[in-house]
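Internal ticket #5521
Category: modeling
Description: The requester needs a full-assembly model to guide mutagenesis choices. All entity lines are attached below as received. Residue total reported by intake: 962.
Assigned to: D.W.
Attached entities:
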Amino acid sequence: MDTAFKGEHLLPGQLGQFFVILAFASALLSTISYYFATTNANKLDDSWKRIARFSFYINTISVLGIGTCLFYIIYTHLFEYHYAWEHSSKSLPVYYIISSYWEGQEGSFWLWGFWQAVLGNILIWKAKSWEKPVMTIVCLSQVLLASMLIGVEMFGNRIGSSPFILLRDAIDLKASTPIFASRPDLYKNYLTYITDGNGLNPLLQNYWMVIHPPTLFLGFASMVVPFAYAIAGLWQKRYTEWVKPAISYSLFAVMVLGTGVIMGSFWAYESLNFGGFWAWDPVENAAIIPWLTLIGAVHVLIVYKNTGHSYFTATFLVLISFVLVLYASFLTRSGILGDTSVHAFTDLGMFWHLVVDVAIFLIISVWLVVTRWKELPISKKEEETYSREFWMFVGSVFLALSCLQLIIVTSIPVWNSIFKTNIAPPNNPVTLYNVFQAGFAVVVTLLAGFTQFLKYKKTDTTRFFITALVYFVFAALITALIVYVTGIYHLHAVFTLVMLGAVYSVLANAKVLADAFKGKIKLAGSAVAHIGFGLILVGAVISAGTSKVVSQNITGEQYSAEFAKRNDPKENILLYKNQPVKMGDYMVTYMGDSLSMPNHYFKVDYKLMDANGKVKEEFMLRPNSQANRKMGLVSSPDTKHYLFHDLYTHVTMAPLKFDDEPQSGDGHSEADDDKNYDPPLLHEVVIGDTIRFREGYMVLKGLNKKAQVQNIPLTGNDVAVGAQMEVVSHGKTYQAEPVYMIKNGSAFDFARKVEDAGLKLRFSKIIPDKGKVEISVYQQPENKRPYIVMKAIQFPYINFFWSGTIIMVIGFLLSIFRRNKELKTV
Amino acid sequence: MKKSSIFGLVTIAIAIAIIIAAYSGSSTYGSFNEAKSSGSELHIIGHLDKQKELFYDAAKDANYFSFFMKDKKGEECKVVFTGTKPQDFERSEQIVLTGQMIGNEFHASKILMKCPSKYTNDKVEFSEFKAKRANI
């Protein structure tokens, strides 16, 4: 039965779907044509190549077409499309529409495909004789990415998931909505009932989320290039030539992927509330795993280029890196991580599709290596012990081993599903990862240090030992100082060793950098990158290892001493509004909140006191929460940045109303409102009298005979008197004027609230014979007063971590320039 | 023996050590009953008993949250968590706890909850416009 639905805009979706199919078909044609162009014996015949190029251009245009259609759908709020409905809403600002683009899996696949198309065009332009075989692989990868977006039923299974699927096709509206069951005639007008989309997850409404995913996916996408070169080298038996261009592209990939990962970590630090910059979450691991192997690959590629050693290791690491990128996308997108990660995507029905994707590239790699094995230029000679190449090789193997540890532990759900076991992830994954990875970091950083003093091929041993040792002693002294000052010695000993390794690596590479300024400019890139890497570790170890919960809370009288002892220290602190609390060196006060929909900002005032109780420093932090009906309460921290430490604050609990609930005050009767207060205390007072209450005092300053109450006109004998009260609470003064009124012979009174002091005041009676007035004072009981529960953490020296990243990226850039200069592609 | 063979052996040894450490460091999924009998730390999957009280009162203790959970075998136990009530806890469909039994209470050191999030639910929320009554 065909129903004509009212108000749908089907054109952009049909156009988009057309581009999806076109992108898939053109990528497939391009792959096939490049394959035949490569295998064609007649070198003068470039007809295949022309078809291949042409279809790749079509593919690029289709990918752009998909993006444009999707953007149009989200931008114009066409909620008849599932993607727009699920990931955006009308209130979303334009720049976050970009983030909603890649909130879903389909959008992030598109992003990946987009970057791969860009890289493909660069390769067509630059790769010269490598174009045909390299592009065969890139196009194959493009085919698989496009297939993820098809979303068409084939052989009873849906292949991929299209971003252009209609809401009514994605969700059975008739089944989920009773109104259509009873009134099927309304179904054709279903769009009139859908007034807004689900909206973007509040956590993603952050400027880092606009640039972090594109960077990360450019990193992932660019990993295909060195892989394609390695495959092309094996396939075309150009075993040694592929290495040089692969070095440049690998450096580019690790630079971009590294930047993307750290951007994600910065986003997590700034806007997630897990209290740190790295949590070893499977999603984070999935991104760092291929990065580590490709870093290793870069080093052995350089070894091979300079000495002819480590050919197999280099090839292996380049190949495995891309396979691991695909494996990572399988882990995060197939839903297999279900019980172990909160961040992973759920299954879109693409489990086997993703498995096939990994398998195809794995099989190609293994098959080529095996069939070409005898011809590979693997050197039979051993490396010298005192040679740079040997230790670079050792370092790369250790990077791969550290990666192995990450893979094995992160993949526990995969082992469970393969071997039908029921192993749970470690109880303390963070400690396990930290200790293991720190162990590898010790080896890797020490190698990155002393290898600088070695030369390729053969080194003068005595001189090497003297320099290496002198620097080591220096490093040990500096490390001792750092460890003592920051208190790292409280931690597991391995972290002290990491610090030593990192410092050693920074010092040794600083020497290389100094030499670089004296003329050996070629070495600057690697030196700078190593220094950056060392600083990252220094920052990570100090700030993660010695971060301190400032908001320690030793109250909580209700529970047994046993409980308190076992679970000490407690990390959340309760702040009532306007009631200062001492927290560490600070005096903190919850000042109130402000609403800027959909964010609920809590103003927390920090005062740093000196010994005499004088305020040395005062600042305000505004952590925020969103109470969103569809996504629940979501908190984001606010951080005070100092040069040498950060003070991080986030609200863990607050009596917050959902954004669609009426805010306080509306629609409640007076009697209801009184329930929010303790029973009133009545005070008979004259002008000038003082009334004390729990958190301060108030003075009756005067009586205002001409009091006005909004909207109530006074006539004839009506009287309205206001009691001018001055309320002082926690050093602040407030004015309030409750009103007593006689209108048409009946008495009324109008209460006034002083929210900040938790007070409601009523001018309840005039007692003419005593010459006094009666003021009823309502105080809010403690638990009805506005409060927040928050957590504050101090992260020392975290700026080393961020600045180390920047330095490392600069190092990569310098290296890319250098390698590109050496590169003369034929 | 050649240097590369030695290094190869070292590499293999480390790789084996990693696998063993990963296996021995891993935990098990279990039930409250197993937690009681073994007393060791484990993971328990279950769901919140929404009939019973969720206790969190920031005014009394901002770091104490207790609730009742039924594990997969249907056994119920009181769970205590040192910290604030995770946001939106009532809506959780499935909970994975990490922790151990202390007396008759399960003390959780980590709570991972799955909500019927926007990623998984296939229910459209419909909104209807109602005319506002005039307030007099």
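Resolution: model delivered.
Comment from assignee: Chain B touches chain A through 57 residues (CB under 8 Å).
Ticket closed.
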